[in-house]
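Give me the fold.
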Amino acid sequence: MEKTEKITKKIEKEKNTKEPIPRLSNPVNKLIYWTPRILTIIYILFISMFALDVFGEYQFPKVLLALFMHLLPIFLLIVILSIAWKRPKIGGWIFLLWGIIFTFFFNTYKNPVNLMLISLPLFITGGLFFLDDKINHQKSP
């Protein structure tokens, strides 16, 4: 009897936790879970290529500072991804906000190609994180 009581208490405790339990048994749910994370990693690699232009512009002492300055958005995207990985709803809001910031800071709204390459992936990723939160991180009934 003691073992069944412990198991029952453990099950009740798990039901009462506030942490959502990801439902990744369905292949579609796995796809929805992994797609925004992989797209963000690909986007980070794509944007980080733009930092390589500093090697042709500056001499050695200044190139390190210039490289660091060009990689600041990348560092922030990595932090945002680490937040969104565990809390997709918060990550979705941050990615949408970051997409708005990129749109106006880099003036991507002036050129449709720039908008699609620089800002649109952030909006899509934010939406996918919202979808992931809605489908995979709901509280258990």
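The radius of gyration is 21 Å.
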